[in-house]
Amino acid sequence: MSDQDTRVEETQIPSPRAESASANATDSGLKWLSSRARSFTLSEGNLFLLLAIIIGMFSGMAVVCFRIAIEWVRLGLLGSALAPPPIRVLLVPAGAGLVVALLVQKFFPGARGSGVNQTKAAVYVFDGYVPFRTVIGKFLTCSLAIGSGQSLGPEDPSLQMGAGIASALGRHLKLSRDKLRLLAPVGAAAGLAAAFNAPISAVLFVIEEVIGTWSASALGAIVLAAVSSAVVMRSFLGGEPMFRVPAYTLAHPAELLAYAVLGVVSGILSLAFTKIIAYFRPKLRALPEWTHYLQPAAAGLLIGLIGLRFPQSMGTGYPYIDQALHSQFTWQILAILGFAKILTTSLSFVSGTPGGMFAPVLFIGAMIGGAVGGLEHHFFPQVSASVAPFALVGMGTFFAGFLRVPITSVFMVVETSGSYSIVLPVMISNTIAYLIARTYQDVALFDLLAKQDNLELPSMEEQREQIVLRVEDAMRKPDLPPLQASDTLARALEIAETSTEEVLLVRFPTGRWAGISIKDLPAMDSTHPKETQLREVLSTARLPILHPDQRLGDALRFIPGHALLPVVSRAGSRKLEGVLSLADILTAYQRTS
Amino acid sequence: MTSEPQNIVSRYVQRRALLLSLLLLALLSAITAALARTYHAREEDLVSEWSQKGNADLAAGKPTLAFEDFRNALSYGPDNPDVQLRLAEALLADGRYTEARSYLVNLWDRGPSSGEVNLDLAHVSMQTGELDQAIRYFRGAIFGSWGKEPVLLRRKIRLELCEFLLSHGRTDEAEGEISGLAADTPADNGALREENGLLFLRVGEPGKALAEFEAALQINPRQSQWLADAGRVAFEDGDYLKAETYFSKSDLENPSAEIHASLVLVRDVLGNDPYLAGLSDEEQTRRTWRDFGQGLEDLRKCASSTAGPPSGQLPSDLQQLNKEAQEMQRRVNLKSLGGSPELRNEAMQFVSRIEDAASRTCGPSASLDRALTIIEKRHERNNP
Predict the structure, then answer these.
(1) A408 in a structural domain
(2) Same domain membership, residue A579 and residue A433
(3) Could you give the ipTM of this predicted complex?
């Protein structure tokens, strides 16, 4: 598009609204615009898919810049060694904490927290609106916090940044409210896919945690955005899996028992971690406002103190996960590092420092997994071959227990490691950890945090586990067999005398169903001979039919205008399974509530 | 419900925004690419800096520091196989075999034909006592790929494998490796041929050893050490004529007391051995008679040097031999020896017993006495 064209557009766009413009000028302008617009017409659906790809690309690049920014900050503030000089370890997280707190309190209040709940809030509360200022704030504050050694990760912020970019683009394109609401999860998936280099896990996480259902309208766009963002990220930062995992083979069938033990340990520890955050976060938030400026710095100082002895517990910890996967720590050290990370991450998170939980959770999981594996290998060397697969499984298990996303956790382990043989141990261990966490902590972490923030966001876990009422739960047996189309009006009158229903159901040989209101029968009797077959009286009448497995909510749509509906078998619509009325539906709902 | 003109404007605005987004995407793409390039360059610098430091620390015998350096390097180049290998070697040098193995196995999965990785894994397996695995990795290293000087490196590893096999008593496998080594040895490298010969000797294959020494001598026939080695092997193999030839040439090229003593010994054997092939019956008898006389003389000398005051008593074995000597002297003479090969054998066995007892009781024997012992021992070995 040339500059001239642009200028023309700028002058012509407001012209239809200008009341003073002449009718001729308006007509010619509209014709011109109309011809230009028609020349590259996209349906809203296609536009949405194209937008998903663009969002994916924007998010991918934003995440690349974000990761590079974190690394530059780390190199600048802590140096290039994995174990930085003690003075820096002590002072940098605290100093950066002060700056981060100032930025969050004064300029970017929306950047606080991990980003997952903020994205959910955007979907369910703010019609998909995420201020672009929050994206900038998240980028700056998280780069500084994570790069300075605060024990947080870049994944959840990336998710929120993706949602923010999507929201900004959607607003810019003046999309409808519905589409805007759908765009936030699309961007979230894109951001997470790029941060994790794992598009499948990102899609699953967004479905499992943000939107809660396999919505067909959003799924295509979410997948497109996640894939395009992962492709962009890989083209800039390389396509290697996040973790390089030694080859895994099951040494002995009893090894699966060892993974079950890991599931128990991870489940208990993830529960403890959740409880710590759930207890301390509101306490610190309730402190006077001025302390909020100091809390990240104080947390940074404590993290620095821990970091003097265990520098591994600072920052994202990814290099150390790699070391754990290569059996570079004894089980005792792994256990200590796991606990140290729980401590430092709790400090960072409850102090309100912006940053994500994914990376620390993976770190803790890897260390705990490695420790359990090492301990088991120590006592039963014939059962487990190596510590590395335990560290890998531990990551997924702790993730499943802490974030309560069991499906995502399985795929995440497979995707980030590129190892498919690990699936069986991961599934065993994850299920146990998830069940323990679910049993002893009713509300999942993100739902809990939302409640603490006075947000009534829908709990995806609760939604998944809600009892779904079906037609079979409400239907009842008919008091009398249905009439046949070949029956006469006289037969119908005879049946009506004994029936307790308001309507008599009539079955046609073709499987069609019709109904005769008992109130209308006398009138029919007066206008038709008694021998008239019902098919003649009901030649055009047709009742909607239901099946026992249909959701009761869906059945409600068919009830208006019908006193009674037939519930028929899917094996043949002539076979009546039961009948359903509005009263039956209401009774079923009352029963379950 | 929106009117048609509003719809058109809205659609137009949408498309313009879309085009602007694409332009912005292109701009952001350029910025990201520049940032990523700068970052990757910095990463490469850091990998290089830390690797150099690690190499220096490893060379200075500080494997713990080297390990930290390589670990730092690896955090900026996690897929750099060179750094991974160096890290594993630092761990190996630090005695952290399990950790080293983990990295090496990972590297092996990615490149099972790498000679270096196989060799390091062999070293880890040696240290952890997994013999079969060590042998497997050694063989992987021998047949693996090597960047520089592959032939020399493969030979070096094969030698190491041979040593490893010999130290664990797996002589047959060692012999197989030495044969492989000999087959791969360039024909014009005498030093390596000589080395092969020495290895064959260690697995009890003097014939093959001699062939290697002779191959070496074809390249340099005046190399005194090789001549001496060939002489020793020929002597051990019972080929005294060859041994005499090689010892005399070696003595000529580089005279030494040791070689001269060997030469005298082999000449004593050649001059006194009644069992040498091709000797006439008469010569065999004559040599046996002379050896018998020498044996009696040695017995007498040893007995007189031992039976001093105060007790005047001989050790029991010498007393017994004295008794038997008297009996033998009655039976053994040139005539009786000439008519009976059995008596010749009996006489030589008796001489051998005298020489054994004399060397035990009276100390190291003279060259001729040792020759007599060797003659009989060899005869017994060849005619069990």
Answers:
(1) yes
(2) no
(3) 0.73
